[in-house]
Every structure is written in C-alpha cells, then in structure tokens.
Specification:
Keywords: Coiled coil. Helix content is 46%, strand content 5%. The protein is mainly alpha-helical. Among the domains are: 231 residues, no CATH class; 139 residues, no CATH class. A 3-stranded antiparallel β-sheet has the order 5-6-7, with no helix packed on it. Strands 1-2 form a two-stranded antiparallel ribbon. It has a two-stranded antiparallel sheet with strand order 3-4. The protein is extended and about 130 Å long. About 17% of the residues have low confidence.
C-alpha cells in the first residue's frame, strides 16, 4: 500500500495511544511515515513498465518521461532518512524476536509468522502501521514475516536494522524483467526518490489518488473481536509500554512568577488641586500600564504650563460690561488677595491675534519619540506651499489591490485545485497564496520600472516639467493615469490567468474521475451479468425469468390458428 500515516494526537477516548504517536514522531521511521508527496501516476507507470534488473544487481534502472533513472539502496537511505548503515542486519533470530514479543503481550506461538491479531491493540497498531506504510505488502496484512517482525521489534528496542535494504529488496522483487505480474509497489517512496534525485523531470497533471491513514484506524484496531473467528486476542497479559514507546510523563504547567496587588495595596489617587477633569486610565489593580504613565506625563506638563510664573494673571471676560477682572495670585501669602477694576481695552490693538479663532494647544504624544513630535510640530506650524504643485509618481511597495487580492475570500476560487492527498479543497494553501502574491508583486515591479524609465528627466526636461505651463501639467496627469490603468490591466491579467489555470486543472481532475467511474461501472456490469448467468445455470428454478401468463384473447387466437393449420 505504501500510504502516509496519521501521526497527530489520538482522538478522544484513545489517550492510551498518545505515547505510541509520540514515539513514532521521534523514531527513525518518522520521515518515511509522515512524508506525503503528490504522486505522478505517469512517473510511476513509466518506472514500472521500463524497469530492468538482473539477479544480483544493486541498482534498478528504468526510464521516466524519456529520462534514464536509477534507484539504489543508498538512494533510499538518503531520501527516506532511516539513519541505518549498509552493514546493519535485516533479520534477527526467532528466539531473540520472541523475547520482545512476549513483552509486547503477544499470545501466539514463536514466529514466523507473527499473527497481528494476537498482539495487544497498543502494539497491534504499530505492526499495522509498518505493514501498511513501509512494507511492500499489497494484501495479507494479518501476518508478519520474520524480517518484518524484526523490523518492528528493532524500532521498539532501538536495535540496528537496515530498513533501506529491506525496502530495496521488496522493490527489487517487483522489477518487470524479474516478475511479469508486477504492480504499483512503493509509489510514494519512488515519487520521493525521483523528485530528490531528478528535479528536472517534466511535471504531469495526472496524479495517483493515494489515501492517507486517518484517525479511524484507532477504532478499527481497538474493536472487539467477533466470536466466530478462529483467532481471537484474549488479553491474557497486561499491557507493558517500554523502549521507544514507553509511557510519557506530561509535565505540569509551571506557575507564572508574577506579583499581584491585593485590595489593601491599592492607593486611591486624588485629582490635583485646580484640575477639574478626573484622571483617566487609573489601574485599580496596583499596576500601571504604559498608557497610564503617558497620561500622567501629559497632566504634569499641563500643571507646569499653568504654574510657570507665580505672578501670572488670570483674566476672565465679563459678557455684560465687557470689563476685565484681574486677580493677582502669589501663593503662599498671608494677606488677602487684592482685586482691581480695569477698563475695557481694545485687545485687537495690543494683541494682533486676538480676533483669530481660539486654537487648541498641541499636546505631546508620550508614545512617540522626540524626533517624530518635532516633525509633526513643524508640519502643523509651517504649511507647505501649494502654489506650484509637483507631479511625481512614487510607486508604493505593494499595490493595495494586491493586498485586497490576497485577503479576499474569493481568492480561493482562483487558486489551483489541490492535488489528491494534499488535504481539503476548502481554501488555498499557504504556498498558493505566497505564489499569487509573488506573481502580482512581479507585475507591480515591472510596471513601476516602466514608469521610472519614462520619468527619467534631464536638466532641460526638468525645467519644462516644472514650468507653469498648464499643457505640460495636463500631459503629466494623463501619463500618470495611463500608467495606473496599465498596472490595473496587468493585475487583472494575472488574476484571470490564475482563474483559467485553476479551471483547467479542475477539468482535468474531473475528466479523470469520470473515466474511472465509467471503467468501474463497466467492470461491475460485467460482474453482475456473469453472476446472473452462473446462478441461472445452477439454480434455474429460482433465477430463470418466469414464463409470461397468456390472456384469454391470446388463448382463443392460438386455438383458431391451430384449427386453421389442421
């Protein structure tokens, strides 16, 4: 089968297998179990049909899409990352293997063969994963040979084992020149080796629909045995987890080293004298945030501005008499405060800015640096001169339409359809989104480069460009508009090309499915007709179509015909 394996956390109710999943993710078989490439059916078919080898050879030669290829034991070792060596054994003695099987709660006799159903469900899942994902078995997943049992025992105990040699031997037996009844053996491993060793092979659209082992395997392994079967696990020995798949101890989460203020530690802050507005953003838990510190700084700045000079005069304009009442405050002072009457004064003569509308005093933002505050102050105090506007094209780092394209939910409609075995087609993968962004970014860069080339100015043309002639300004505006339209057209083109590619790929996949369904329908129809003929020949009374009963009119007509003949 050679399918990829489910190595995520076990579902609810199967927490016992968590240590097994953790061990599989950390053992030497992890890469060969998890890797799930897109299998090109044309590649595997070419490799199978053109494979050649002789007994005793150490290399399998073939031809894929017109390219000479070869696979050896070392290629398997380099790609599948088993971490073994060429001189490691591929089989252990029966006695040594049986000692480990007893620890695995095995209830059968000394192998070979090893009956998978007589293993505890915990270890039965490990044996099942090895048979389905790594071994070359096409069927017969109930028994393990001595070589396969040695491989399973080795990964449990951490023994040396040449997994690369074992896979190569199973692959070598399937060579067409040695076995006329060869079939698709190790399609996943062959695809991984060809992609790594021959990266320039032409990519084909037709893929091999290889399913992945999902979480339902836990239910199948742990289900109760039927009473009418000859082999039944009786649970005579208790489960013992050891070796690579020993029980794991999950560490308890450590407490955060933090000091939390209690209620009696909270200090109630009263507003300063003379401040009417309350203090905001006061953290009642005893810990101030950055915003609280910034607000406190702003309040202190206001207090400093109000009490810069102790002899500062506070003026209040009276609406009715238009008289000014001045109060001189010089605290601390024991004498009473003196109040004087002053006549109305034309403030417009003394202060030129008196008739201007009041302007709110700018306040520093404590979250920004001094340079940013100085720059913001200079921009507000010194407005730019707009009498002679400059028309410059400054391309942005990324066009907003590109960002909208990436973030839009409809983008999933224009992404290439996922290959079978790659996961759900509910949305684009991260690689598809990054690829689309790169295409759109490349188009934006080309447009920006074209604009820059057209905007290269000499001293003479610069003088003309910044002249006060309205016709030049109009031409400059028109050029900018045209360049923006070109950029929009380029983005639309890429957008539609992605949509066309996605639709074409979906069409190919659907046609493939239709052909497969038609083939299966024809095969099923032939099987049904064959079974019907056999049943009619063996049980004619039950399966032969009954004779049609004749009506009264048909009987009379038949009698008349017989009389006429006589």
């Amino acid at each position: 089968m050679n399918i990829a394996c489910y190595l995520s956390d076990p579902p609810k109710g199967f927490e016992t297998y968590k240590s097994l999943i953790v061990g599989l993710n950390t053992c030497r078989l992890a890469h060969s179990l998890r890797e799930n490439p897109v299998i090109r059916e044309d590649w595997i078919k070419d490799f199978r049909d053109n494979s050649t080898a002789k007994k005793g050879d150490s290399v399998i030669k073939s031809k894929v899409r017109g390219t000479e290829v070869s696979i050896s034991e070392q290629d398997i070792r380099d790609v599948l990352l088993f971490g073994d060596a060429a001189d490691d054994p591929i089989e252990y003695s029966k006695e040594k293997v049986m000692d480990v099987l007893v620890k695995m709660s095995y209830e059968g006799a000394t192998p070979p063969p090893t009956i998978k159903k007589l293993l505890h469900p915990y270890w039965r899942l490990l044996a099942h994963i090895y048979l389905v994902c790594i071994s070359g078995n096409k069927s017969g997943l109930d028994k393990l040979t001595l070589k396969q049992t040695s491989a399973v025992v080795s990964v449990v105990e951490g023994w040396m084992y040449n997994y690369s040699k074992s896979v190569f031997d199973d692959m070598f037996v399937n060579v067409k020149t040695l076995n006329e009844k060869c079939w698709y053996r190790f399609p996943r491993f062959i695809q991984m080796i060809l992609e790594k060793k021959y990266p320039k092979l032409p990519v084909t659209v037709k893929t091999y629909d290889a399913k992945m082992m999902n979480h339902l395997v836990f239910t199948w392994i742990n289900q109760k045995s039927r009473d009418n079967v000859g082999v039944k696990y009786e649970n005579k020995r208790a489960l013992t987890k050891f070796g690579t798949f020993a029980e794991i101890q999950e560490a308890a989460p450590t407490q955060i080293n933090a000091i939390v203020a209690e209620e009696h530690d909270v200090e109630i802050i009263e507003p300063p004298v003379g401040v009417q507005e309350p203090i905001e953003n006061v953290d009642l838990t005893g810990i101030e945030s950055e915003e609280d510190v910034g607000d406190d700084r702003m309040i202190e700045d206001e207090e400093e501005d109000e009490h810069v000079d102790e002899s500062e005069t506070e003026t209040e304009i009276m609406d009715e008499g238009l008289t000014a009442e001045t109060v001189h405050v010089s605290p601390p002072h024991d004498e009473p405060v003196s109040t004087t009457e002053a006549t109305a004064v034309d403030r417009s003569l003394e202060e030129p800015d008196a008739n201007l509308p009041p302007r709110k005093r700018s306040r520093r933002d404590p979250r920004l640096s001094d340079e940013v505050n100085i720059q913001a102050t200079s921009e507000t105090s010194n407005p730019t001169d707009t009498s002679q506007p400059k028309i410059n094209y400054t391309p942005s780092e990324l066009n907003p339409k590109i960002i909208d394209f990436i973030l839009d939910e409809r983008t999933a409609m224009y992404m290439p359809a996922p290959k079978p075995g790659e996961g759900s087609s509910s949305g684009p993968s991260e690689a598809d989104v990054i690829r689309a962004a790169e295409l759109l970014q490349a188009a934006a860069v080309q447009v920006e480069a074209t604009v820059k080339l057209k905007q290269v100015e000499t001293p003479e043309t610069a003088a003309i460009a910044y002249s006060s002639d309205s016709e030049d300004l109009f031409e400059e505006n028109e050029t900018t508009i045209l360049m923006r339209r070109i950029s929009t057209f380029e983005e639309d083109k890429i957008f539609k090309d992605a949509q066309i590619a996605s639709l074409m790929e979906e069409l190919v996949v659907k046609n493939q499915k239709i052909n497969e369904l038609e083939t299966n329908l024809g095969a099923l129809s032939a099987i049904v007709m064959d079974m019907k003929q056999k049943l009619e020949g063996k049980f004619p009374k039950e399966f032969v179509d009954p004779a049609k009963e004749s009506t009264t009119e048909e009987r009379e007509s038949s009698k008349e015909n017989s009389m006429k003949k006589q």
